[in-house]
Prior knowledge:
This protein is α/β, with parallel strands linked by helices. Among the domains are: 8-126, Fumarate Reductase Iron-sulfur Protein, Chain B, domain 2 (Orthogonal Bundle); 332-453, Rossmann fold (3-Layer(aba) Sandwich). The protein is built from 23 helices and eight strands. The strands form two sheets. A four-stranded parallel beta sheet has the order 2-1-3-4, sandwiched between helices. A four-stranded parallel beta sheet has the order 6-5-7-8, sandwiched between helices. The relative contact order is 0.11. It binds iron/sulfur cluster (SF4) (2 copies).
Amino acid sequence: MLCFPIDYRSMSEPARQPKSIFTPIAGPRFTAPELPTYDALMDCIRCGRCLPACPTYQQTSLETFSPRGRLSLMRAVEDGKLDLAEAGLEEHLYHCLDCRSCNTVCPVSIPIGELIVEGRAAVEAKHPRSWIIRLVLQHVLISPSRIQKFTPPVRFAQKLKLDKLAGLFFGWIPPLKDLFQLAPQLPKPLWNDLNKPLGSPQTLKVSTYRVGYFLGCVMNVVFADASRATVKLLEHYSCAVVTPADQMCCGAPQDDQGLKDAMRKMAKRNIEAFEKLGDLDAIVADCAACSGFLKEYRHVFHDDPVWAARADRFASKVRDITEWLDQIMPAELPAKASTPKSITYHEPCHLANVQGVRRQPRALLARLKNKGVDVRELDDPTRCCGSAGIYNLTHPAMSKDLLDRKMDDVAATGAEVVVSANPGCLLQLEWGAKRAGSSVKVKHVAQVLLEAIED
Ligand code: SF4
Ligand code: SF4
């Protein structure tokens, strides 16, 4: 069983089998149904273009921490040269951030990130993730309705400062130490306001669009204020917002940790929940990881005779909030006194690399630029901030090193506010600001846009 947290600085390379490379070993290999496609593994021409694009390679300069190296390890398993159960192999796959930066530069279009995630699912069968990860991903982080049940006691404890006390008692346990430091003050969850108009009466016009809103487990609880901003913006720009109460987690965290069965169950429940809403112009999510994975449902079910068409219909409606707002908002916005003077934008990997949505968030921020807001580009804006789902808890050393680089880049812009469009990034950046003692504010794109139009 794999334990966490993992410090990459103390890891060793997988030991070579003491046999000729021409002698296949007898150990277990990847097994169906999550078999990384051998042809795809063979497609690698070893050109090395993906190496400088990979944050974990940038950090270590080690081949096994690179996309090419991870593909080679999986190919060695398939060729019978490396045992799937080999200590350390799974951790090399799990050290990948699933940021998909490598996918964007590979000249032969190998879906490297997806293959690594498939490899993890195969390893999961032999080396299950730690019980706590499986408990959280299969019983806690499964739906907004489940998550919001934990919110009132946590908010109460935070009010009484009991979380600080718990931090003193349990903060020495490595994964909990980072969890206590990461955890922000929880706002009132959006859950109780579902399907109620949130905008002021004068902003509620006759609706032009009917939009299904995908809540997102973390957005709904940790960034409920940003979710409120999303709903208010949608209403302001003529959208009737409907939200199914029986929606589930999108399934991305489960997929990321190799728990494919749990992920498929959630995906089917989501497709059914949104089908029940009838005809929608779009299904909108303000969490880039969610919108990216909801679009991937068509790949998840591509060979399923019952679900393929339904998944395809569902995925074709999904829009990240930045895509949808860019489509419906006017070209110019009034900038109010409360609008910050300078903003920089951190691109979520799952928005830029997975969905290819790079222009729209910038186009939205450019609407503020027209009114004197200085929008400053980050150096390497898509480089992962180290959040990557629960990576910041399972791999704190690598995560913190990447975060510190990101915060140095943010500081170099001198911007008052850093915006992003993914709750994982927002949490990580807030933590980064705290660690760096920086006064930079961290906001969701929807929040700065709403501030610019609200009276
Ligand atoms: S997905 Fe990101 S971390 Fe993983 S191999 Fe590709 S570039 Fe590296
Ligand atoms: S960029 Fe693609 S082809 Fe080149 S080494 Fe990386 S995975 Fe292989």
